[in-house]
């Protein structure tokens, strides 16, 4: 069980780190694309064309139910049992018929599991 929880914590940490890396890359790409010297019509006598805007997508902040069981390693039914027992984060409402879990809440939950198993 401890190995499963450690694996879960490691997987969630890796996912969050990957999302942060993507966000940092998106910011750097945006800054690079908007740099004045990078968008000049000519540079060193050679005509260059650079985009004025780089479309980037932010890393996801939420996880929907269809992806959650694979991410946390427990079934959908067990997730709802744990929510009812107060031992799993509650979802947030995204719309009239859409709920999801915050990545940060899932990371905090995984960290509490790790602390409980360390004790």
What does this structure look like?
With 119 residues, this protein is an alpha+beta fold. Helix content is 54%, strand content 13%. The protein has 4 helices and 5 strands. Strand 4 and strand 5 form a beta hairpin. The chain starts with a helix and ends with a helix.
Count all strands and give the number: 5
- What is the CA–CA distance across the termini? 14 Å
Give the percentage of residues in beta strands: 5-15%
The biggest beta sheet is recorded as: 3 strands, antiparallel
Helix-strand category: alpha+beta
SSE sequence, one letter per element: HEEEHHEEH
General form: globular
Strand order within the widest sheet? 3-5-4
Poorly predicted runs: none
Computed over alpha carbons, the radius of gyration is 21 Å
- Overall average residue pLDDT: 77
Percentage of residues assigned to helices = 40-55%
Count of alpha and pi helical runs: 4
Produce a short descriptive summary:
With 119 residues, the protein is of the alpha+beta class. 54% of the residues lie in helices and 13% in strands.
Q: Any chance you could write out the topology, listing elements then pairs?
A:
Elements: H1 2-34, E1 42-43, E2 46-47, E3 62-63, H2 68-72, H3 76-85, E4 92-95, E5 98-102, H4 103-118
Antiparallel strand pairs: 1-2, 3-5, 4-5
Helix pairs in contact: 1-4
List keywords for this structure.
119 residues; alpha+beta; 3-stranded antiparallel β-sheet; two-stranded antiparallel sheet; 4 helices; 5 strands; globular
């Amino acid at each position: 069980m401890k190995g499963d929880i450690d694996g879960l914590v490691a997987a969630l940490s890796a996912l969050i780190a990957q999302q942060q890396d993507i966000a940092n890359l998106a910011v750097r790409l945006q800054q690079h694309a908007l740099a004045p010297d990078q968008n000049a019509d000519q540079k060193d006598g050679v005509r260059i064309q650079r985009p004025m805007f780089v479309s980037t997508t932010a890393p996801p902040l939420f996880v929907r139910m269809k992806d959650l069981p694979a991410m946390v390693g427990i079934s959908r039914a067990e997730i709802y049992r744990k929510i009812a027992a107060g031992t799993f984060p509650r979802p947030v409402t995204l719309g009239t018929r859409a709920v999801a879990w915050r990545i940060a809440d899932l990371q905090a939950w995984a960290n509490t599991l790790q602390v409980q198993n360390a004790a």
